[in-house]
Structure formats: structure tokens, C-alpha cells
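User: hey, got a sec? need 3-methyl-2-oxobutanoate hydroxymethyltransferase folded
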Amino acid sequence: RKRLTINSLQRMKQERNAISVLTAYDYPSAKLAEEAGIDVILVGDSLGNVVLGYETTIPVTIDDIVYHTRAVARAAAHTFIVADMPFMTYGASRELTLTNAAKIMQQGGAQAVKLEGGAEIAADVEALVKAGIPVMGHIGLTPQSVHQLGGYKVQGKTEKDAQRLMDDALALEQAGAFSIVLELVTEPVAEAVSKALSIPTIGIGAGRGCDGQVLVYHDLLQYASPYFEKKFVKTYADIGSMIRGAIESYVDEVKTGQFPAEEHVFQPGTASPQALYG
Ligand code: KIV
Ligand code: NA
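Assistant: Yep! Here you go:
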């Protein structure tokens, strides 16, 4: 199958064909996401939480994102890959923003970058787009600003906040963003923003009016994620229990001597290990 483009994503919005987005951070997650037919893979800085064990996304570095994006790109040659620009790797200067986005594209192999923020980063978005780098916006709850926001709270609850979200979304579209993530936004506000924009919105905890949805891989699979109990997450499998159970069986069989069994061992005169790994 062919990799989607920013044009095909725009068309999907027009045709009301919902866009499915999933995060992935390494070869197996990206390979399975692509095989399952996901439209867009996001190498999110949520990798800080679900892969690296940090409490927030703030410690994630540009090198972390490049490293994980490379693994994803090797696994998903037919899927549109967006990678997050980490905390403070953009915005402080135009040069910093362009240099770091270039790293993600050139060394990581992503097709686009995602930045958190609204009107205040519109000029950076415009500079990236002019340089030929597709940009996905991200407004609402922006985890890199968790300390400024005072926690992981639903956004858009007051009229003033709703208006600010609308203004930010329009500023990002105006600056040339090809899509915008709406995170933890009340359903009516996310729907109104989606209707006001010609570019697709991708929601997470933003209700049914968005043009697409995104979930975090480890949340969807209940894969040792501390966050899968969040209200907006739906878990489609309990992979964590499966993995833990399998490892418990392995430990048990090693202790009891059930593993390795006759079929797992080499005797003189049988095929060489090299041939078996072929
Ligand atoms: O890092 C991430 O996974 C994200 C999505 C939740 C949108 O930014
Ligand atoms: Na992110």
C-alpha cells in the first residue's frame, strides 16, 4: 500500500473518512501498527512516559526522538510518520526550530513534525512550512506545559478558553499546519474547531466531532502503561497481563526444569545452530 500524504489526509476530512492515528516508538510497535492499517504513526514524546519511565514529557531530548523515529521508519515504510519536537527544541529561536526539525526529518526519517502551542508559535510553524517541513499543531492540554497549566486538566471549559482555542487553531491553519491535535478538549469546543478549520483535527480526549483520533500505543494495549485508566482511553487488549503471564510461565518452567525440553536441545549429529537461525 502507498504512504498517505498531507493531501490525502486533507481529502479524508472532506470525505468524512475518519483518520486513525496511533503512537509507536520502536520496530515492533510500528510494524504491527502498519500491518493493522493505521493511517498515521506518531512518534510522540509520550515515549518519555510509556517507554522511558519519566513522569512528564519534559526530559525527552531531540536525540531520543531521532533514535526512536529511526526504528519506526525502518518498520513502517508505507505509513505517514509524524514525530514530536520535544520540550524547548523549538520556539526559542527560528534557527533552533529549523535545525531540530531538520534532524527529525533527515536523521529520523519522519515525514512531518508536531509542535505544541498556538498563536505564539505560528511564526515558527510558518518558517518550517516554508522550509518544506509539514507541521502538525497540538493545542488544548499540551503536556510539555503541564507545570504552566497547573496539571493535566480538560481545556476549553470557559467561554474565554474556548475562544482562545479557536483563535489558536485558526492561527496554526493560517501558518500552514496540515493538521492539529486537540488534546483533552470538551466535545462541543473540539467540534466547533473542527468545523471552522479546513485542515483535519485529530482528537485525544476531545470527543466525537474531530476528523480523526489518536491514542497512545501502551494505553490502547494496556501495556504496562500507568495511564490506561484515563477516561478518554479505550483499551482493546490486555497485553500487559499476557506478557506478565508468559514470563511467569517461563520462570516457572526454568525453575521446574520443564524448559528446555528435548526439542530445544542440540545433540551431536543434528543441524548446526547457524542453520537453525538461517
Ligand atoms: O506524545 C504523544 O503521544 C502525543 C499524542 C498524545 C497526541 O502528543
Ligand atoms: Na506529544
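Quick note: Strands lie at 19-23, 40-43, 80-84, 112-114, 135-140, 179-183, 201-204, 212-215. Let me know if you need anything else on 3-methyl-2-oxobutanoate hydroxymethyltransferase.
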